[in-house]
Amino acid sequence: xxxxxxxxxxxxxxxxxxxxxxxxxxxxxxxxxxxxxxxxxxxxxxxxxxxxxxxxxxxxxxxxxxxxxxxxxxxxxxxxxxxxxxxxxxxxxxxxxxxxxxxxxxxxxxxxxxxxxxxxxxxxxxxxxxxxxxxxxxxxxxxxxxxxxxxxxxxxxxxxxxxxxxxxxxxxxxxxxxxxxxxxxxxxxxxxxxxxxxxxxxxxxxxxxxxxxxxxxxxxxxxxxxxxxxxxxxxxxxxxxxxxxxxxxxxxx
Amino acid sequence: xxxxxxxxxxxxxxxxxxxxxxxxxxxxxxxxxxxxxxxxxxxxxxxxxxxxxxxxxxxxxxxxxxxxxxxxxxxxxxxxxxxxxxxxxxxxxxxxxxxxxxxxxxxxxxxxxxxxxxxxxxxxxxxxxxxxxxxxxxxxxxxxxxxxxxxxxxxxxxxxxxxxxxxxxxxxxxxxxxxxxxxxxxxxxxxxxxxxxxxxxxxxxxxxxxxxxxxxxxxxxxxxxxxxxxxxxxxxxxxxxxxxxxxxxxxxx
DNA sequence: CGTCTCGTTGAGCTAAGTCAAGGTAGGTGG
DNA sequence: CCACCTACCTTGACTTAGCTCAACGAGACG
Lengths: 253, 253
What we know:
2 copies of one chain form a homodimer.
Chain A: E1 5-7, H1 14-22, H2 28-37, E2 41-44, E3 49-51, E4 61-65, E5 68-73, E6 79-85, E7 90-91, H3 99-102, E8 110-113, E9 117-121, H4 123-130, H5 137-163, H6 166-183, E10 191-193, H7 198-205, H8 209-221, E11 225-228, E12 231-234, H9 237-243
Antiparallel strand pairs in A: 1-2, 2-9, 3-8, 4-7, 4-9, 5-6, 5-8, 10-12, 11-12
Chain A binds a DNA duplex through helix 8.
């Protein structure tokens, strides 16, 4: 199931590495450490279940390129997606101490590769962060920051699902993705790649595919944005911010 | 705002301490450490905002008795509650390394005392967990476990909001509360105290108060449970499990 | 004996879901 | 090159879960 090929010399992972470094100031030594970790990559084809729910958590990995999502599937087939993972994000990372005991716990959700996914092992980075060595303080800060952001995204998602309308939810999620992809250099000028099917978006936003489609039409007809051939174009980003019901101050976050 | 009285010799906190100890096996020394931390308590009256959103995170605290909730309020007044906190739970705890930098970050949500809330400072416990001393391994495991459970509850909440019907959401939340309170000895025989108003429940479950009320009627009329004078009674717990759409295996979790 | 908070109920409305039928584009095999 | 999948998107018609507005009841409290 985790059919993975191993390669050397990854391509196209520069952005992810740069973004990881942007989480905190890193020393030259630390940067070298990160690059070394990214030397040996694993490629998972689209559709692969990187992590199965309930099975022991795998070692932490840094995404170098591609998209994944964390999800849970109910007994009757209903699915809820917790969030999406893009280049520069980490999966399976917990900065809890106690190396033993903390691992081998059942995963609270599955992780699914949406596109072909290139990752590298982040176990070394995690250990560097936890060894208390002052020389690795930057790595520690970067990983803390990554964990913190993941948690914040989850809280945002709870608000979306609980208290935003379908129209607001969509705008809000697209703005989050735009901001996150911009940080990795994968978005700019209001555009970004969008490999997510409407089914994935619907299962993330707690909507039916049909309704999601109709609400997207509203955005399209209002001239606020378009989604075509795997790309999102925010034609009027400020208007989308308003549509999402965000306060202007919260806009860029 | 954080009008807090300081007392010694807390009363009624035994259950919370016992439950904290149940998160992991603790040595006698560790138990003494926890008891020492619980010597000096802070009492926040109901309605107090223990932690304001956006303000620097306060030092971690262990709840000895009372209820609180973590929430976010939107610009137009809509509110989303992320979850409830009861005796034995921790608030403001992050086990990230880097003592500096990790603190002073803006809180991603507010924490509100629902009832009068008795807490004690958990900074010492946190430090004991992070100092790497083998003598504190139990504390470290207990805190990791607490963080892990909090995250799992949040994921459950996302599923509730995104993919469960109102009827299922209510049953599911009540079952979670029942399980958690049972662990502290505050619930048993299908009964537990319920200081939450219908407004709090509604803002947690992403429903309107009116609709929440009506769905509660359904449960009541079906003879599955009652909520009266601050107490929930699960008359047919197994039937509630079914109503919540949980698989039997997942029932007790 | 007002007033306040909380719970309850009715009436009517709307956001969102379901069911069902096409449409489009890329991919594969004859 | 065409014929045929298959996965995904789109649209229409209809149903329903959940919301809003509004009124009222009951207990708590000064």
